[in-house]
Specification:
With 336 residues, the chain is an alpha/beta fold. It has a single domain, classed as TIM Barrel (Alpha-Beta Barrel), CATH 3.20.20. 38% of the residues lie in helices and 14% in strands. The chain has 11 helices and 10 strands. Helix 1 packs across helix 7, helix 5 crosses helix 6 and helix 8 packs parallel to helix 9. The structure holds S-adenosylmethionine, 6-(5-methyl-2-OXO-imidazolidin-4-yl)-hexanoic acid and iron/sulfur cluster. The site of S-adenosylmethionine has 17 residues, from loops.
Length: 336
């Protein structure tokens, strides 16, 4: 059944106590309430991107702190994935600063990296931009189970953020990912100057995808010096918490990821995000190019909240999905 912006707004405007209670009901019904899924990001091709995403440190159109780096060799990716596993991540997400896959030679190298990471027993995710069904199929055959491609914002606000590819291009990629039988990871960014209505429209757009995305990353804008969005004001923490709660209620079976922007959030704001239904974070002191909290700080934070790293198959079971395979969570994994 599809949902509407009016229904999302009615949730958003509930007293905070009732909104969190409703989110908690959804969370306890479909998620492991004490589990937090830990993902590690790796930028496998950095900078010099042709696209004009106004938030992005990696677009060639803006002068930022990012230096371009060529596609990483599968052997280097292997080293990074081993480190990710040792630090407790169950998912390894490889990101490339591309408009989409174009070179067959480079794509073959990514496929090899996917095989290696899969063999290490990590869930493999990629975010490579626009994707054809054939590319999606070949990534799946190599062992990737999930593809990240964000809608980023509402259809209406989108052209204020990106002009080099359309909202429908993005939806077509998500449909190609689905047709290949892969899980979808799709979310957006809060704090790019969009209205509350735009934020709710983004959540409604995601919730009305059928099936709903298995993962929904909610990023708070990391305002990068040199990008057109460098002067955006940080999002109000309670507005952000409310959006997480609405996402949780509208998509009760999805993993809601508290993604970029945690470096500038207090522990208390993050606690509220977990109370509102977030149940995944990126770990490691770097996202793709920007800072993320230190692993030791996240370990302390999760231990303080009594939360533990989530086994992906335990999560799938609770969400009413089929287990993919058992991923071993190392005994010395962060927290708890
Ligand atoms: N190039 C690929 C693409 O655009 O699909 C993959 C990488 S791209 C960096 C992945 C996502 O990261 C973007 O869609 C955006 O939602 C998020 N992102 C990028 N820069 C960000 C920033 N400065 N703050 C918050 N989120 C950001
Ligand atoms: C997502 O939604 N957030 C991640 C992941 N998907 C690829 C990326 C965040 C990037 C933050 C900016 C940077 O580090 O360059
Ligand atoms: Fe390129 Fe992706 Fe950054 Fe857009 S978000 S500029 S496509 S790396």
């Amino acid at each position: 059944m599809s949902t509407t912006v009016e229904a999302a707004r009615a949730l958003y405007e509930l007293p905070l106590t009732t909104l969190i209670f409703r989110a908690q009901q959804a969370h306890h019904a479909f998620q492991d309430p004490a589990g937090v899924q830990l993902s590690m990001l790796q930028s496998i091709k950095t900078g010099a991107c042709s696209e004009d995403c106004k938030y992005c440190a990696q677009s060639s159109r803006y002068t930022t702190f990012v230096d371009r780096e060529p596609l990483m060799d599968p052997a280097e990716v292997r080293v990074a994935a081993i480190k990710a596993k040792a630090s407790g991540a169950s998912r390894f997400c490889m990101g490339a600063a591309w408009r989409g896959v174009s070179s067959e030679r480079q794509f073959s190298s990514v496929l090899e990296s996917v095989r290696i990471v899969d063999q290490l027993g990590l869930e493999v995710c990629c975010t490579l931009g626009l994707l054809t069904e054939d590319h999606a199929q070949r990534l799946k055959e190599a062992g990737m189970t999930v593809y990240n491609h964000n809608l980023d914002t509402s259809r209406e606000y989108y052209s204020e953020v990106i002009t080099t590819r359309s909202y429908d291009d993005r939806l077509a990629t998500l449909s190609n990912v689905r047709k290949a039988g892969l899980e979808v990871c799709s979310g957006g960014i809060i704090g790019m100057g969009e209205s509350c209505e735009d934020r709710l429209k983004l959540l409604v757009e995601l919730a009305n995808l059928s099936p709903q995305p298995e993962s929904v990353p909610i990023n708070a804008l990391v305002a990068v010096e040199g990008t057109p969005m460098c002067d955006q004001k940080p999002v109000d923490s309670i507005e952000f918490v409310r959006l997480i709660a609405v996402a949780r209620i509208l998509m009760p079976r999805s993993t809601v990821r508290l993604s970029a922007g945690r470096s500038s959030m207090s522990g208390e704001t993050q606690a509220l995000c977990f109370l509102a239904g977030a149940n995944s974070i990126f770990i490691g002191n770097k996202l793709l190019t920007t800072a993320n909290p230190e692993a030791s700080d996240d370990e302390r934070m999760l231990a303080r909240f009594g939360l533990h790293p989530l086994d992906p198959d335990v999560a799938r079971e609770k969400q009413g999905r089929k287990p993919v395979r058992k991923v071993e969570i190392p005994a010395d994994a962060t927290a708890g």
